[in-house]
Amino acid sequence: MTQVLYILRRLVTLIPVLLGISVLVFLLIQLVPGDPAVTLLGSHVTDAGVAALHQQLGLDQPLWQQYVSFLGRLLHGDLGESYQYKSSVSALVLQNLVPTVWLIVVGALFAVMISVPLAVWAASRRGGVADNAIRSIPLIGLGMPAFWLGIMLVLLLSLKARIFPASGFGTGFVGHVESIILPALTVALALVPILVRSLRAGLLDVLQSDYITTARSKGLAAPRVVLGHALRNAAVSSITVLGVNIAYLIGSTIVVERVFALNGIGYLMLTAILNRDFPIVQGVTLVFAVMVVTVNLLTDLAHASLDPRVRLA
């Protein structure tokens, strides 16, 4: 019952957050220099044409009235109409959302699969050769930009080894899996240095606890002590670190999608920015913000499930 109340309380707190996001997204687009009507008319721009298009798009209304109209459409799932594609922004976002979700989810899974064994190995051999080698990973990994990692993976595993496709999202489930591995690995390698450092520090702290000493005194094997007792408690803080960095990486998927020519919403947004297609920029920005809020919510729920004290706070 306590967990249900905690979830309900967290959902209620999201309402003002989402409302604030809608205000910020709306105002940010208003601050972008340039007139959408002038952009749409191009070489055929005239004062009468601009005025007529302002009336058609509702740009002649007061700012507060434009926001009320925007919020009303938003509550009905309507993100407006693209200037470039002449179609619904909501449909375009849904069409391009799948590759981005695959990229984020698979990238997070790869990051966990790589980071947990490395952190456990380093913490179990504190001060040893393996520990010192693994501790150098954050120093090296944090200095590698995502676009460079992506290009190197394409050169090594696609163009030379010919193991994975170099670009695109493939067709069918198998094609999607093959095509998403390199982009997801690029995302994961950006997360691994931070996760390894966080989880290793958490494990070292937990391994010095009294209950770990008691478990060892009972004759439990070292792997069982680390994996069965220490890892769960050490993972609490690392889950928060993972959630924060996934939320941060959601915005940076634009770069990764560009490198691998994934037709995700990041790629869609970049194209819209170049073409000054403001409704798409507004819609995708809003979707990115909602994704960040969702990741933070799931992180809090995972944290609460591992640490009951959070639900009682």
TrEMBL record:
Pfam families: BPD_transp_1, BPD_transp_1_N. The keyword ATP-binding does not apply. The chain crosses the membrane at residues 12-32, 101-124, 136-159, 179-196, 234-260, 280-299. CDD domains: TM_PBP2. Keywords: Cell membrane, Membrane, Transmembrane, Transmembrane helix, Transport. It is a multi-pass membrane protein. Signal peptide: none annotated. The keyword Membrane applies. Residues 97-299 form the ABC transmembrane type-1 domain. InterPro entries: BPD_transp_1_N (IPR045621), MetI-like (IPR000515), MetI-like_sf (IPR035906). It is found in: Cell membrane. Belongs to the binding-protein-dependent transport system permease family. PANTHER family: DIPEPTIDE TRANSPORT SYSTEM PERMEASE PROTEIN DPPB-RELATED. This is ABC transporter permease. The lineage of its organism: Bacteria, Bacillati, Actinomycetota, Actinomycetes, Pseudonocardiales.
